[in-house]
Every structure is written in structure tokens, then in C-alpha cells.
Design a protein that fits this description.
By secondary structure, the chain is α+β, with helices and mostly antiparallel strands. It is built from eleven helices and six strands.
Length: 269
């Protein structure tokens, strides 16, 4: 399986600051298995920290990752924690959390970085550079530890050579991709999912019908996520979603486009 391949490859990885981007190719169930085998701390890379996080604070290893993210956010400029939620409720991280996170609860967030921060951490291993920093040699990250590999669904917001997208523009597309991955657990095609959501068989989905259908299928979305999804699905602004609009969403958040070739070198030795 892909999970087993990555478990084996992990110990041989040279460009392990790019390893996280490879993990983005996994489905949500696959990623859960990989975390179970390697552990969240081993997979966390503060040099390439940009990404989406869903952390169960009752698990010490996941709580450690959350604490490290807070430390990074304090040190790095700009708005780093985007759409942060604690147990499904919007949250501005309290100052006491900088010293100690709660020992229970679920926190979700998008960790974002300014372009200057990405450049600095990619070069030095941290924001300002340090001769003693563990990810650097003589204050610089070795070239073998940083490829240009990125995933195709970041292609419109990716800056060549950085490995991570700057700012927060990437969050919307990533959110839509996560929603589709949740749907793929239920069914394999857009038509199948649409049929399951269309409870009255009318051939159209209203906003309330979409929300109720997703909840019925075990897919809970935050109101902001539902608003984003509906605005994308209702491409003609008609107030309802038809199958062809749902199919467009499915296709635009699908597999790698033909001809997409990342500029990269070997990840493993």
C-alpha cells in the first residue's frame, strides 16, 4: 500500500522537508494510518510547517505539535493561525496557551506563513538563523534536504523553490479538497454522492438540503466550510445546485492533471 511504502521510505528520506508534501497525496484514511505508524511528532516538520492541522489534545504527541505551532506563531510575523477552532467553535488562541495547552479537546487550524518567513526557514531552518539549530549545518539547511517538490493542487499559489505556499490563499482550495476526500469515503463518483444528498429526488440541492444530506452521511462541516462549498457548487448563482455543477466541483478537486510534472529530485537514498 502507499502507506507501507511511505513507512519504509521514511527512514531513507534525504529531502525530508519535502516529505510532508508527499503525504498530501494520501487520502484521509491513509493519512490516519500513517500517523498511527510513524507518530505525529515524527511527521511534524517546523521548517515546512505550512498546512492544515487537526489535533486531539488528549494525546500527548498531538498536544506537543500544537504547542510547537503556537511557539512558531509567536516568533513569526503575520497571521499564522487561520480559521482556528476549538471543539468546533471559532477561537483566538488565549495567551496562557503559549505556556501550556489544555489536556483535552480538538483544535483545528490552518498554519500560514508570509513569503519572507518561508524563504528564511527554507534557507536557515528557522526564522532568523542559528548556528546551533538542529535542521541546519553552519546556519544553513543542506540542499539535499530541500527539493522543489509540491503537489499540483497548490500550483496556482505555489512559488517555485519554496516548497510551501505563502499567505492564506491556499486554504480555500485545500478546504474544498478535504471536503471531497470526506465524500470519497462515502461513494466513488459525483453522481453517487449527489444522489445520496438529493433526498427528495428533485435533481437539485438547496443549501439546507446540502447541509442536512452531508450531516446524514456523517460529514459535518463548519458553517464557514458549508458557505464556501455552496458558493463554489452554485456556480451560476441560481440558489440551487444541479448535478453538472456538482460534477464540475468534483472534477476541479480531483486527481493530478495530465502533464503536471513537479521540478524535483529523488526524495530517498
Amino acid at each position: 500500500s502507499r502507506v507501507q511504502f511511505l513507512v519504509i521510505a521514511f527512514a531513507r528520506t534525504l529531502d525530508w522537508h519535502g516529505f510532508g508534501n508527499v503525504c498530501l497525496l494520501l487520502t484521509q484514511p491513509e493519512m490516519k494510518k500513517l500517523r498511527g505508524k510513524l507518530g505525529p511528532v515524527a511527521l511534524f516538520d517546523e521548517v515546512s510547517a505550512v498546512g492544515y492541522y487537526e489535533l486531539d489534545l488528549s494525546i500527548p504527541e498531538q498536544r506537543f505539535v500544537g504547542q510547537e505551532l503556537i511557539h512558531l506563531a509567536i516568533d513569526e510575523p503575520g497571521e499564522n493561525f487561520v480559521e482556528t477552532q476549538y471543539n468546533g467553535i471559532d477561537l483566538s488562541v488565549p495567551m496562557p496557551w503559549s505556556k501550556l495547552l489544555p489536556s483535552k479537546g480538538l483544535i483545528t487550524l490552518y498554519y500560514c506563513r508570509a513569503s519572507s518567513t518561508i524563504q528564511s526557514t527554507r534557507k536557515h531552518g528557522c526564522l532568523r538563523g542559528s548556528l546551533d539549530y538542529p535542521w541546519s549545518t553552519g546556519g544553513l539547511v543542506p540542499d539535499d534536504h530541500k527539493s522543489n517538490y509540491t503537489v499540483w493542487f497548490w500550483k496556482d499559489v505555489y512559488c517555485s523553490g519554496w516548497g510551501q505556499p505563502p499567505g492564506a490563499e491556499w486554504c480555500k482550495g485545500y478546504r474544498l479538497r478535504r471536503i471531497k476526500q470526506k465524500m470519497l469515503i462515502i461513494a466513488e463518483t459525483a453522481e453517487e454522492v449527489f444522489s445520496l444528498l438529493d433526498s427528495d429526488g428533485g435533481g437539485e440541492l438547496e443549501r439546507t438540503e446540502l447541509a442536512a444530506g452531508l450531516f446524514r452521511l456523517g460529514i459535518w462541516l463548519h458553517p464557514k466550510e458549508l458557505t464556501t462549498l455552496f458558493s463554489v457548487l452554485d456556480s451560476d448563482g441560481g440558489g440551487t445546485i444541479e448535478l453538472h455543477e456538482f460534477q464540475d466541483f468534483w472534477d476541479n478537486n480531483g486527481e493530478r492533471p495530465k502533464g503536471w510534472r513537479p521540478n524535483t529530485r529523488s526524495l530517498t537514498a
